[in-house]
Amino acid sequence: MAKLNITDVELSNKKVLMRVDFNVPLDKQQNITDDTRIKETLSSIKYLLDKKCSLVLCAHLGRPKGKPVPEMSLKPCAAHLAKLTGVKVQMAPDCIGAETKKMADALNPGEILLLENLRFHPEEEKNDPNFAKELSSMAEVFVQDAFGTVHRAHASTEGVTKYLPAYAGFLLKKEIDYLGKAVENPDKPFVAILGGAKISGKIDVISNLLNKVDTLIVGGAMTYTFLKAQGLSIGNSLVEDDRLDMAKEVLAKAKEKKITFLLPIDHLIADKVEAGAKSEIVMENIPAGMIGVDIGPKTIALFTEAIKRAKTIVWNGPMGVFEINDFAKGTIAIANALAEATATGATTIIGGGDSVAAVAKAGVTSKISHISTGGGASLEFLEGKVLPGIAALKDK
After folding, report:
1. pTM
2. Does 353 qualify as catalytic in the annotation?
3. Is 152 a catalytic residue?
4. Which structural domain, as residue segments, surrounds residue 333?
């Protein structure tokens, strides 16, 4: 998995096409409500500017489905990046075309041009060679620093690498280092914690991790499919009845491989999934009409104990309906347990999506070793899949 990064090659005074992840949330007034993704790319941008490179940045925002959608313009990102870097950021009218090419050609060392939303063109997601070639014509080198997009073979992630030498930026390097080590050579004991709604979305991750982990912890709504598969009653909890056999197979495989497979032993249950709902703690069986919404205190203690012993911990998916404060205790307890494990020398990795929000809610974001910036990409990495946007970069 070792790929050349921007410190491995001489890039001084080069014109660089750089893929960044500026897919940020905007409010109705087109204000950026969370700039994490932009901030994550700053170290690569500043490094290249210090090297007197001229930067052509390309990104997507939202799902415009191959046509221009004014609300999904990257203009707010250009203004925000200028504020963060103190460097003027020119905004291109499009991501390809004569006018954009002219602006790219006119760039001086230390200047930045942001191309308009790549997905305003259907050719981006189709990985169209001519579109990729046109993007590539604006630079001498390609730098990939958008980890959230590398699981897709698009023109700006895979296509351009056929026309330009391609290297990893610092953010991508960090993701490869942390996730790669966890998947290929983790410090043991290795504990994986999986939560969220459905087994079907995580089955490939579970299957791959069963070959790597010492302990697999499962929480969240997918718990109830496993518990039902073991013959326990789960009331009105979310369940995938068509995945019961799959759950049984996973449990049998874990047993065969002598992996500790931890499921909740008590539950916070409620009569409905909303704030202020009537709730109580029950042991194994959930009564009819009630819904499992979080792990209980005995489960928190059981899971925390396993986390304490671990040297590598990967977490993807909440333990309950953590968006509602009444049902967030289990998820926040796990976030705090990971923060404590980090403090005592364990490597802790949060794999994208809701877990990132959960760690933020617990106020321990800065106390985790690595928080992945890509939900789908980090999941596919943990599944052991080859990610096309990484595979296309030059090997060390």
Report:
1. 0.86
2. yes
3. no
4. 178-382
